[in-house]
Amino acid sequence: MFTNIKYADMLLVMGECHSNLAEAVRTHTNRFPNRRQPSGHVLRRLIQRARGTGRLAPRIEIESGRPRGARVPDI
């Protein structure tokens, strides 16, 4: 997972590249060579999340795979 600062940098690069995912990935790679690089999928999800919820980082309990069911103790 990325920090909010790194997500903000990704958003800035996306705006600079006019939402072109491939160009944004290249620009981010050139600008931040020592960072873990996001894929186009990560950037697309970031844009959707920012527009839909206003959040940059994903909510772990909701967006991390299979939903967990409630455990009911046997009595």
Structure description:
The chain is mainly alpha-helical. The protein has one domain. 56% of the residues lie in helices and 0% in strands. The chain has four helices and no strands. The protein has helices at residues 4-16, 21-31, 40-53, 60-63. Helix 1 (4-16) crosses helix 2. The longest helix has 14 residues, at 40-53. The termini are far apart. Pfam families: DUF4817. InterPro entries: DUF4817 (IPR032135).
Write the topology of this structure.
Blueprint lengths: L3 H13 L4 H11 L8 H14 L6 H4 L12
Largest sheet: none
Strand content bin? under 5%
Number of strands: 0
Overall geometry comes to: elongated
Structural class: mainly alpha
Distance between the termini: 40 Å
Tell me the number of helical segments per DSSP (H or I, 4 or more residues long).
4
Q: What's the helix-strand series?
A: HHHH
The tally of domains stands at 1
Indicate the radius of gyration in whole angstroms.
Answer: 16 Å
| Overall pLDDT metric | 86
Q: Could you estimate the helical fraction of the residues in percent?
A: 55-70%
Low-pLDDT stretches: none
Pfam families: DUF4817
Please tag this protein with its features:
elongated, 75 residues
